[in-house]
Write a structure and sequence with these properties.
This protein is an alpha/beta fold and about 325 residues long. It is built from seven helices and 18 strands. Helix 5 links the parallel strand 15 and strand 16. Helix 4 runs parallel beside helix 5. The N and C termini lie far apart (about 45 Å).
Length: about 325
């Protein structure tokens, strides 16, 4: 049985390889055209040292100079001695170009396009090439704007299924991609995407999780929750989803459906506009309860516009939540 190994490079590029249980990860990568850093191949030099973000594996023989006992206890591995016993995620401490691991390019077409609100579009694409698409839930891709050489970055809002995958896209007035989607796009139109990319993705769930989404920053969380619904979680997960105005609140039916599938998942929505009739107004930080922080033993994921990311970062610093795992992605809408 092959295991899937996600190689996460320093520049955010992620490449997936298949490894058999009896071959080292370094050999599997080389077999598939990716040259991870390597020198001795005998566990003596440490050149191929990487960090195992998740997954189970066995290690062959190596010397202390190549990998110390403390490093091994933290999760570092030598890919020349590592054999996967499950799917794994490895952080590779070099850029992708040094390993001949350029992002993968996929050809697809528009399957569905829907205006969820004046500010948000839902785009679903499909294609035979997407049947081979893999990414870590939370990552993004660069979508080419048809008729131009420009690209725009969007997070996946679903995990791939039957050659289909979806996005939530902010409708930016005057935006290049927004203009094409709202004025010209139709089912069957060709699109090209490059990726996956990004270091914002769901890690193994080992303690309670707090997710904070702003606007179309909801997209990576619905992909994460898709994965959690499929795999389950022994720990509670709470999402707070904030928008500026009532009309910006979208996909709540999707969240309700996910809550029905994930027994320990709850969510709350809020609207920043104080004049809103919504049950919760104000910013997401105003709706974080002590129980959500679990006395600091919590993993916090945040995706939203820069002001929101800065406000939440300040909230975390002020409460000395240094023990919390804090993963974030900020985005600014592109024209």
């Amino acid at each position: 049985m092959n295991h899937q190994i996600a190689l996460q490079f320093e520049d955010g590029v992620t490449r997936f390889i298949a490894a058999t249980p009896d071959e080292t990860v370094a050999d599997a990568a080389f077999r598939q055209g990716i040259n991870v850093p390597l020198d001795c191949r005998d566990g003596a030099c440490g050149t191929c040292k990487c960090f195992a973000e998740s997954g189970s594996f066995t290690m062959g023989e190596y010397i202390e100079d190549a990998l110390s006992e403390d490093e091994a206890a933290q999760g570092y591995v030598l890919t020349c001695q590592m054999r996967a016993a499950s799917d794994c995620v490895l952080r590779v401490p070099v850029t992708s170009d040094l390993c001949r691991a350029a992002p993968t390019v996929f050809d697809a077409r528009v399957a569905e396009l829907q205006a969820l609100s004046p500010s948000t579009l839902a785009l679903t694409i499909e294609g035979e090439s997407l049947r081979g698409l893999s990414f870590l839930p939370g990552q993004y891709v660069k979508l080419g704007v048809p008729g131009t050489t420009e690209t725009r970055a969007y997070s996946f809002s679903s995990m791939p299924q039957d050659g289909r995958v979806a996005f939530l896209i902010r409708n930016v007035p005057g935006g290049l991609m927004s203009g094409w989607l709202t004025q010209s796009a139709k089912a069957g139109d060709a699109l090209r995407l490059e990726g996956p990319l990004g270091s914002f993705y769901l890690r193994d769930i080992r303690r309670p999780v707090l997710m904070l989404a702003g606007g179309t920053g909801l997209a990576p969380f619905t992909a994460m929750l898709d994965r959690i619904a499929a795999q389950g979680s022994a720990h509670p997960i709470h999402l707070i989803y904030g928008v500026t105005h009532d009309a910006d609140l979208v996909a709540t039916d999707r969240l309700a459906e996910l809550a029905a599938r994930i027994p320990n998942f709850t969510f709350a929505t809020c609207v920043a506009n104080r004049e809103s009739a919504h049950p919760r107004t104000g910013y997401v930080t105003e709706h974080i309860e002590p129980a959500h922080l679990n006395a600091g033993e919590v993993d916090i994921y945040l995706c939203g516009p820069p002001p929101m990311v800065e406000a939440v970062s300040r909230f975390i610093r002020e409460r000395a939540l240094d023990g919390a795992g804090f993963h974030y992605e900020k985005f600014a809408a592109s024209v």
